């Protein structure tokens, strides 16, 4: 599979088979995702794999949009994506390196999350990145350390659907040139 085939073929999957995700596959996916770029190679992204009864409790932490709870209940595994705070975008003395402040950590987490989803797709797995959940409840349930911030939840499993690609903007809409 070429990079273009991987990027253009991957879809957000919201329906999964009951087949569990192998821990070996998951470890390979995380190893691949670890090559995503990060601020000064800080590699701040962390992954928490949630299965079984705890996954069911996690699904209940979605009162902001119940659809995500349904997706999580249907998926064999959910990945909580966190970042180690206070590193991305900072200098060693604690000052910010850019005007983005700590916002750069979201860029790093986004790049790592996309690398994770593409690596999963290459292994035949489907994913969907979810941002609507009750953050305080998730942080408490998963006992996320104080030095980490919850960024997103990713449902992962074997796809039970093959959605069509949504319409994309044209290159002319997305790209401009300046001299």
Multimeric organization: single chain
CA-based gyration radius:
17 Å
Number of strands: 4
Mean pLDDT: 93
Q: So how many helices?
A: 7
CATH homologous superfamily assignment: NADH Oxidase
How many structural domains does the protein architecture include? 1
* pLDDT < 50 stretches: none
How far apart are the first and last residues' alpha carbons, in Å? Answer: 36 Å
CATH class: Alpha Beta
Write down the overall geometry.
globular
Strand order of the largest sheet: 1-2-4-3
What pattern of helices and strands is seen along the backbone? HHEHHEHEHEH
Strand content: 15-25%
Give structural notes.
This protein is of the alpha+beta class and 179 residues long. It has one domain (3-174): 3-Layer(aba) Sandwich (NADH Oxidase). The protein is 37% helix and 16% strand. The protein contains seven helices and four strands; from the N terminus they run H-H-E-H-H-E-H-E-H-E-H. It has helices at residues 3-9, 23-33, 52-59, 66-74, 104-122, 135-142, 171-174; strands at 45-50, 77-84, 126-130, 148-157. It has a four-stranded antiparallel beta sheet with strand order 1-2-4-3, sandwiched between helices. Helix 2 (23-33) crosses helix 5. The longest helix is centred in the middle third of the chain and has 19 residues, at 104-122.
